[in-house]
Amino acid sequence: MAQTIALVDDDRNILTSVSMTLEQEGYTIRTYTDGESALQGLMARPVDLAVLDVKMPRMDGMELLQRLRQRSNMPVIFLTSKDEEVDELMGLRLGADDYITKPFSQRLLLERIRALLRRNEGARAEGSGAPPGGIISRGDLVLDETKHTCVWKGGQVQLTVTEFLLVKALALRPGMVKNRDQLIDAAYGENIYVDDRTIDSHVKRIRKKFRVVDDDFAQIETLYGIGYRYKEA
């Protein structure tokens, strides 16, 4: 069954050209030209992945992403203008899995879509580093790879695909430091370039989500200039 991708952009030329490229690759495409219609459509009929632009009428991409994350963990790629670094960081903090700056090549977008969909499938399957059944248990943390769920001290923590893979990478090796390149490989896969600040933004959001369940959460430590590690129990 073909995977479905939503494209949300008020530039109809982008919608037409990207839709044609993705349909040729076997994907089913839904297009929206503003945030409000996209929100209604995506809530009624979820997709496998969404590509969102920032600047749109009737609800911009930032608000749309925030509203989507209240009800869905579907993978999201954020489109942002070349000079809008603040938008990139804000998009990641709101829960985007990846971002691409405009103007972009359709080949690059296709590669990012493929990589994110593969990660999404992999996050729901049993991982090679997990015990039988796809369960990773580290003290108060329980990750279920088959269901893509995260529990901390009995409370559910809603994680995106990228966030889940980052927590998994850290939790599998408690006490060991993971530098940013290693975390990029774990969450995005090899041969995908991602800026270091992307990992930092994801970790900040992960901590924020855990602290909704536990105000004192401090299990993920920062080693400045080196990377991150999951504290041993």
UniProtKB/TrEMBL annotation:
<dbReference type="InterPro" id="IPR001867">
    <property type="entry name" value="OmpR/PhoB-type_DNA-bd"/>
</dbReference>
<dbReference type="InterPro" id="IPR001789">
    <property type="entry name" value="Sig_transdc_resp-reg_receiver"/>
</dbReference>
<dbReference type="InterPro" id="IPR039420">
    <property type="entry name" value="WalR-like"/>
</dbReference>
<dbReference type="InterPro" id="IPR036388">
    <property type="entry name" value="WH-like_DNA-bd_sf"/>
</dbReference>
<dbReference type="Pfam" id="PF00072">
    <property type="entry name" value="Response_reg"/>
</dbReference>
<keyword id="KW-0902">Two-component regulatory system</keyword>
<keyword id="KW-0804">Transcription</keyword>
<feature type="modified residue" description="4-aspartylphosphate">
    <location>
        <position position="53"/>
    </location>
</feature>
<feature type="domain" description="Response regulatory">
    <location>
        <begin position="4"/>
        <end position="117"/>
    </location>
</feature>
<dbReference type="InterPro" id="IPR011006">
    <property type="entry name" value="CheY-like_superfamily"/>
</dbReference>
<dbReference type="Pfam" id="PF00486">
    <property type="entry name" value="Trans_reg_C"/>
</dbReference>
<keyword id="KW-0238">DNA-binding</keyword>
<feature type="domain" description="OmpR/PhoB-type">
    <location>
        <begin position="133"/>
        <end position="232"/>
    </location>
</feature>
<feature type="DNA-binding region" description="OmpR/PhoB-type">
    <location>
        <begin position="133"/>
        <end position="232"/>
    </location>
</feature>
<keyword id="KW-0597">Phosphoprotein</keyword>
<dbReference type="InterPro" id="IPR016032">
    <property type="entry name" value="Sig_transdc_resp-reg_C-effctor"/>
</dbReference>
<protein>
    <submittedName>
        <fullName>Response regulator transcription factor</fullName>
    </submittedName>
</protein>
<keyword id="KW-0805">Transcription regulation</keyword>
